[in-house]
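Section: Multi-chain targets

For targets with more than one molecule, the full set of components is provided together so that the structure can be written out for the assembly as a whole rather than chain by chain. Components appear in the order listed by the source. The example entry contains two components.
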Amino acid sequence: MTEMMLKVEDLHARYGAVEVLRGLGFEVPDRSVVVILGANGAGKTTTLRALCNMCTTSGSILLEGEDISRAKTADIVRRGVAHVPQGRGTFPELSVMDNLRIGAYIRRDKEVNADIGRWFEIFPRLEERRDQLAGSLSGGEQQMLAVARALMCRPRLLLLDEPSLGLAPLIIEDLFERFIQLNKETGLTMLLVEQNANLALDMADYAYVIESGEIALHGPADQLKNDPAVQEAYLGA
Amino acid sequence: MDAGLLLLLQRIFDALTNSAIYASLALALVIIYRSTGLLNFAQGEMATFSAYVAFVLLVGAAPGLTGGSLAAAIGAPYPTVAAIGAAVVFGAIAGGVTERLVIRPLRETSELAVVSITIGLFLGVNSLVEQWWGTAPRQFPSLFPDAASDYLDVAGARLRYSAIGAWATLLVLLAALAWLLQRTRGGLAFRAVSFNRESAELSGIRSARTLMWGWVLASALGAVAAALSASSVLLEPKMMLRVLVYAFAAATLGGLDSPRGAIIGGVVIGLSQTLVPAYIPFIGFELSVLPALVVMVIVLVVRPAGLFGTQRLERV
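Its structure, encoded as tokens over all components, is:
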């Protein structure tokens, strides 16, 4: 049996009186890429926020077998979960370098600068702009910075909330190629939520489709890609 | 030098000490505003309390002095600098404890609740000071040489050592603050939390703890402001009330979230308080608080972000 990085059972989440997630269950095997697809308002973003305890939740969330559903956001990050929120979550008022240093805040080892150098190799545009304010970067560059910032804490699980949002198609392709590269080279486990089903299904090993806060469909990504219902709803076929 | 010009120079020198006091309290307000978006109305009163702690440490056991025997038990009377240093540390710790016990539990509730509770703290701490130490003004030793002859002659105008000392203190504090914020790991965390609490949490920064450190820093700065104020005039329970109004005006002028703005705001308000009544007889010294209020209203109407404040821009 494959090791589970993340195992979620009966996850409920609410904003005030509105219940957004209604008993979600899913699994993310170690070293895999899992995608959650769904329309606007289906609860994709809430799912990721619930994992980091950023909204009111109930249910069980096991990270490598340990329940993290009651832990505080910062402590969940310290346990190896990095989250690139929708709208990027960088600090526009701070320089690219400071953003990366903040990403490495929880680390006390001496390899922080080496890591920054490594992400600069993968995202050379960031190195060119290292002293610029993050807010002055283009949308694609900010997304790269957000990802690099998240990776600076050396996570075991990377949560990506619609990384393709607002980016030009070519940039999206480039970004997704880098995600695949990261997963292949470092074995980093990724959980991605997306509306851009085509690219996400190409990249993922396994996929879930959520509708109104419940899992409607799930299966290996290549299978889902050929599923007529998915094709009609998400792939525009 | 022309007599009129000399008088102007002298008046500017006279405004320096007050400017430094306003600037340091404004700086305290800015630190909390920057990190939480809220104003701490109790900043001045908490500082007054620290100044009384310094006073008790200076005097030690004395008949009718609350806390005097307690201070004597830990070695009071202390020399001036040691007493004030200890009071600043006390103020810093009290600020942190206040944040932890009173502010943090309310933070999740609503911003209005936090503002209201700082007004409550303002009244509570003020009453406590009056209850324990009475309303009568007390002589507070000067931090710097302050005899009649302790001044520097600048083209005929007298620049007092105490004014130089107040500014030297402020500049040292400012340098320390800049180092803390720009060069340390904790400072980076503080800036991150100030700009975006959620993103900071997502980088593993424990924002609640970081915000408490903001209160610690601000309260330490406030305690220094109160010590400067007490040593330039007299120690009394209401002494920081006017200072708080001026510091609000200074911070507003500077932009509320800019430390540099707080300093320049402090200077402008300090100068306006001395110069406006001096050259516009109609206003007079009884109304010397007026220029500060006028400045505050004009800034809020014309340029709400102040001189150096962050203009909030958002890409949507």
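The interface with chain B takes residues 52, 54, 72-75, 77-78, 82-83, 85, 89-94, 98, 101-103, 105-106, 135, 149-150, 153 of chain A (CB under 8 Å).
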